[in-house]
Each structure stands twice: as structure tokens, then as C-alpha cells.
Amino acid sequence: MLFDSHAHYNDERFKDDVDEVLSAMNENNVGLILNSCSSLDEVPDIFAICEKYPFVYASVGIHPHEVSELTEADMDKLKEYAKNPKVKAIGEIGLDYFYDFSPRDIQQKWFARQVDVARELKMPVVIHDREAHKDCMDILREHKVSEVGGVFHCYAGSVEMAKEILDWGMYIAFGGSLTFKKSVRPVEVAKYVPLDKIVIETDSPYLTPEPHRGKRNSSLYIHYVAEKLAAVKGISVEEIENATYENAKKCFGIK
């Protein structure tokens, strides 16, 4: 079975057929999904999906695009949402210097604060890091992410950066970008990272893998990521499926 460790089924692009898509998972070898959160406004819709589908779990957190107006009251609300038994991580949280939709100093403030919340709650984190590697790593180091661990979503850093992330006990996630024809760095990193520290994801509806790039993504395409990873590692697809399934369960504390 496959575990899609990062998806967004509350996204507008699934509003007309989310039930049809999720109902097809079992027959397509997808056993578990973690639906990640971008803003607290999304949480009720995410919880409704989790309640309807036992195999869907959640993370709760505020994406760097959404942090401009945050207050400490939002951190209290985040902690309250995290009490839901379906919530298995704080995220996705981090820094995004590609779009800069929120001022960088504000991104850094609330990223650090949410890592502290995760430590307070003893929950792993789901990290979003886009073109902000140094600041992201500095904050995670300073705020002792090693105490809770978690996963680097859609990893785009170097092998050298991965070494420290692995030293923190964290997992590294590979998704559709691993399959792209000009994808060099993700392949290099995938060769380096030990199998017991890899999880796979789709980031649905984004980052659709080859050969469906350009279409809306869903967990039904995650097998393409597993197949590419198997080719990179020189092992069977079944080994990739089994390892990444168990790794994600361990990362998120799912029995």
C-alpha cells in the first residue's frame, strides 16, 4: 500500500469530485493520506474530510503565504485544533521567499512560533521551504526541531543540507518533481537519503508527476513517484511502497 504524506483535498479544485476521488483510493493501492493545512480557515473542511474517510489524517498549521495578519490568539486556536485525534502534525509551516506573499520578517516570526508550538505539543512538523534554505535551517536549529522531528515537504535542498536534516531525525519527502525530465538535484538527494528516512507525497492538486504533468494532481498518481524512486534507488517498487508507508506511519505516529 501507498501513503501519500502530503495532499490538499480541501482545495477548490476538488470541490466537485472530492468524494469520487477519495472513494477510489483503496482499489488503487493508496492506504493512507495526510491532508495538510495552509490556514486555520481551512481546518473545518479538512476535519470534515477526515471524519468521512478513516484513512485520511491531517496536519494543522499556517503556511508562510498566510501569516501576515496572525496574532497570538491564532496560536491558541491552533493548539485547540491540534487536540483532534486525526491531527498528526503541525504544518505546513515554513518560509517562502519565491512568492514573498508575506514579509520575510513576519514569515520568520510565525514560523519560529509554530515550531515552538509543535515542541510544546510534542508533535512533528511539516516544513515548507522554498528558496529560503539558510533562514529555514537557522530557525529549525535554533528552535530545536530535533526534539519533535517531522518531514521536509517537497524537498528542494542540497545533499549537504539533507545531512543535517537527517541528523535531526527528520524525514525527507519526494513528490512529482522527482519525475520531471530536468530534475537533477532531487534525484541526487534521493540517491543519498537512506530508505528508512524517505516518505513520498503528491501535494495534490499541485506538482503532478510525469506523464500527467499539467493536469490536476491526486493521490491516484503517487505510484509514479514510487516507481521513479525505485528506479533511482535500484530496488523494487514494492520495497519503496512498503518502506515509505511504514516511514510515514512512524513519522506521524499512526498505529
Number of domains: 1
Strand content: 15-25%
Task: Indicate the low-confidence ranges by residue numbers.
Answer: none
**Spatial shape:** globular
Q: Mean of residue pLDDT?
A: 98
**Main CATH class:** Alpha Beta
Strand order of the largest sheet: 1-2-3-4-5-6-7-8
Q: What does this protein structure show overall?
A:
By secondary structure, this protein is an alpha/beta fold. The protein has a single domain, classed as Metal-dependent hydrolases (TIM Barrel). 39% of the residues lie in helices and 17% in strands. The chain is built from nine helices and eight strands. Strands 1-2-3-4-5-6-7-8 form an eight-stranded parallel sheet. Helix 8 crosses helix 9. The longest helix is centred in the middle third of the chain and has 18 residues. The protein is globular and about 45 Å long. The model has no long low-confidence stretch (mean pLDDT 98).
Brief summary of the model shown:
The protein has helices at 18-23, 43-52, 72-81, 104-121, 133-142, 159-167, 185-192, 222-233, 237-252, and strands at 2-7, 30-35, 56-60, 87-96, 125-130, 150-152, 171-174, 198-200. By secondary structure, the protein is of the alpha/beta class.
